[in-house]
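Lay summary. Proteins are chains of building blocks that fold into shapes, and those shapes determine what they do. In this project we predict the shape from the chain. Here is one chain we studied, written as its sequence of building blocks.
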Amino acid sequence: MSAETFVARLDRVPVNRFHTWLLITSGLGWMFDAMDVLLIGFLVTPITKEFTLAPAQVGLVASAGFVGMFLGAAISGRLADRYGRRPIFQATLVLFSIGAVLSALAPTFELLLAARVIAGLGLGGELPVVATLVSEFSPRAQRGRMIVLLESFWAYGTLAAGLVALFVLPQFGWRGAFLVAALPALYVAYLRSALPESPRYLAERGRNAEADAIVRRVERAGGGALLTLGAAVAPARSGRTSLTELWKPAYARRTAMLWILWFGITFTYYGIFLYVPSLLAARGLSEVRSNEFFFLSTIAQIPGYFSAAWLVERWGRKPTLVAYLLGTAAAAFLFGNSGTGTDAFLYAALLSFFNLGAWGVVYTISPELYPTAVRGTGAGGAAAVGRIGGIIGPFLTPVLVPALGQSGVFAMFMILLVVTALNVWLLAEETRGRSLEDIAGPVAA
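And here is the predicted shape, written in a compact code that computers can read:
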């Protein structure tokens, strides 16, 4: 028998209680992050009233968080490749919670903006690092499904944001709403302290005994590890840690595809979903009714995620992502030309279904395309480019609606989503069923 590396053993461990605990503790943090992001759409109005904001200042409330998300995504991936996934995985959620608490306590508008940047640093930093960690622990045959299910916690956070807007906001105001997002997230950060470091990261750093011990722990959780009594066999180390690695010939096409994908899907997501309640209100619905409408339509995110989780391991990453991006494009056009009745509800639900299903696949492929030494850097860099779209979207939508109308703005979103899908179709490669080491390619001598 040929010697098998402990990374190869990790790839074939069946999903067990360790993976379930990893998914839950990772996903709960994701849920509170989503709740904070989507709450802003509901809290802008009361914040504007309390601080008597000018129109130009209103957009800063949402965009301050996205500035932090851009910086967090750009920095955290690099830190995760240098210092490990686990410490950054924990620190980002704590930083987000601190920012949310400071947001609730902010006595002035300027301090609120600073608090939103801090929360954004934690949020933007957490998402690519969490996806990287879960990806490196997941069995090869279930890796795509695990990441899409991780991303599905975003839907639960969206629903939680709607519940907070309906029940907490009227009773406790916008400050109470921020606290509801912050305090449980701190407890989740505590739960995460029991999770181990990624064996792939440890192996890349030459810490083979520690890595093998963690793999054996995962195997024992599934009833295995009894027959793996030989010496630990480590995988080859890539040793490639430079940022320029992302644009070397082996990865330049992947990086270009990811950056275009992330910008397109992030720009359209925040340009659309942060303003759905206000756009519905502009069509004649009351503020309360439009919030209820938005909340109910977002329930469609859940089957969107679960259908993508099934297809990503059956069809593959590439066809699933293209199909869901095109579905989002069609739904955007239809919603932009709908009214306030059943048709608008149906098209908003389709937007939620397809767009969030696509997001699950985006987070699946982002860490898959790079070697361990720069996996966090690659995923974080792509997310940072996407956050530029998140900064522009909240400003651009309210500016363009008076000039182009809602139908014109949503036609623009449709075109951008089609271009994004074409980018994936032409540049992406299929990764379904392949190990992370096989996708990364051979280690240079």
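What the prediction tells us: The domain at 6-225+233-440 is CATH 1.20.1250.20 (Growth Hormone; Chain: A;).
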